[in-house]
Amino acid sequence: MPELPEVTTMVNGLREKTLKRTIADVWSDAKKAIKKPNNFSEFRKQIIGLRIEKIDRKGKVILITLDKNRTLLVHPKMSGHFLFGKWKKTAEGWEPLKKGLLEDPMNRFIHLIFWLDNGYMLAFSDLRKFGRIELWPMDKLQEASLITQIGEDALKITIKQFKEVLKSLKNWKIKPLLMNQKKIAGIGNIYSDEILFRARVNPFRTAQSLKNAEIKRIYLSIGVILRKAIKVSGSSISDFRRIDGDKGEFQKLTKVYGHQGKKCSKCGSIVETKKLAGRSTHFCPKCQV
Question: Looking at residue 25, what is its pLDDT?
Fold first, then answer.
């Protein structure tokens, strides 16, 4: 699932390729992904001719500000990612016109395409088809649950706010607390494991059990890990790809995620994996106490 670094990577790519471009047309074969308006013909009618003015992120949600008082909200959910290029329709699906990165198998699940005024296409590839698209009047965004139910951004939350979250969920295990999007937005399974490893805190600890020094280490590790991941365009452990079709590289830098059964890079103990709140959780039993 795209987390904050992957969504930031998408936003950066969209800014580079699509700012000030006008949407000339739109196609989809997964019309149920369009939640507002929930009629694709009406969505198409409203969005054609609008110019892309600004692109931002809130948590894991992309906000594309258009002219004429419209904002496009995109939640990639489990497997969605944007691609930029040119394709042709074939019996098998959409085929890129040029050989290269867009031919990656994980880029073939194209279910939404925007044609832009410069002849290029902005495609949304979504293997599991869970992505959510909403077009809102800008002055009605306060009604959009996609963004109003999101907590403080993981890269913007203050230490005071972080401590307040810990206090409000004092009986929660620290890993699922970090992944609670209504409290802290942007952290998922991969980065919560890496954050807690760097902070030397066991993911099964409760928030109320944490000492002040441990809280500070977790807080600082959030910023360090997420910014490190952004620098290398996020993680492409499964289906995430950059807007040019290439992979992110953070999977090469993980210390515990995906390292179960291997030696810890710090102490040599064997990295373990256990289920926690329904998610596979990776940790070093010796380094993380």
Answer: 98
